[in-house]
């Protein structure tokens, strides 16, 4: 019982510790944002010049915890249209320096700026005139002195109560890496469609799929012509098994749709003998084929009257190209 009471009493302290940690890191990010100056712009322009030449890559390096952050920054840059990769400084000293060319730019991370493991790569950059951007907390360090551009992190205490474990400093490095990546992305004007090229898989890739990637099309579409009686339309509805029939003219121009809901609203003894144009909804919701599938889902879920389960894909002339259902969106992982 005493152990249980002691355990419970520690919970508030854990929460206070977590909030202090996050507060310290937020303070670091705020201070970092305020500290950015012309050097940041110079760094972005240096990297952009490399990209414009179409040959170089952005090399990101660091040692220890900074090395882990360097890996993530390189991955973020690569996924946002800046060719980048991570090199471990230790491996660089044993042959991987040969991977770095004079067309490249190097970003090197070290809070102290005095790691011996970074020396060989630093001297290599100077020897071959490779632009070197330093991210460090020490403007007087060897790294800062050798760098062409130094991005100095503000002096904010680590969240660690002993001031030892890299916490606030690595958070600032990570945030600065994100800031560099997004600034470059915005200069490039990367669209969602282009972004998909680097993210074809997973949840993000699914959300970036286009409507045309998931639509039912061709002979699978439940087309009927005006003048068709409902008994024949219901046969088409059953055969195609898409929960609706689409009424089109001879050029596949959209005239209306009949869904299960329409059948229920017009249920009567003469239903089977009536014509489809008497039953159809004449203004069904449509979506253009080049739009994102996530936009189709949003339209379905936020329909003014009630959520709908399918959308007709049509071009600007209302020619029907396909049908997309919420089931396909769910299967694809859009929701």
Key terms:
elongated, 335 residues, 46% helix, five-stranded parallel beta sheet, three-stranded mixed beta sheet, single chain, CBS-domain, 2 domains, alpha/beta, Rossmann fold
Q: Please give the share of residues in helix.
A: 40-55%
User: Between the first and last Cα atoms, what is the distance in angstroms?
Assistant: 46 Å
Strand percentage: 5-15%
How many structural units, i.e. domains? 2
**Integer average pLDDT:** 87
The first-level CATH class name of the largest domain: Alpha Beta
Please work out how many helical segments DSSP would assign.
16
Structural class: alpha/beta
Strand count, sense and barrel status of the largest sheet are: 5 strands, parallel
- The CATH architecture of the largest domain can be given as 3-Layer(aba) Sandwich
CATH superfamily of the largest domain: Glucose-6-phosphate isomerase like protein, domain 1
The shape, in one word, is elongated
Strand order of the largest sheet: 2-1-3-4-5
Please count the beta strands (DSSP E, at least 2 residues each). 11
The CATH topology assignment of the largest domain is Rossmann fold
The radius of gyration is 30 Å
What series of H and E elements makes up the topology?
HHHEHEHEHEHEHHHHEHEEHHEHEEH
Low confidence ranges: none
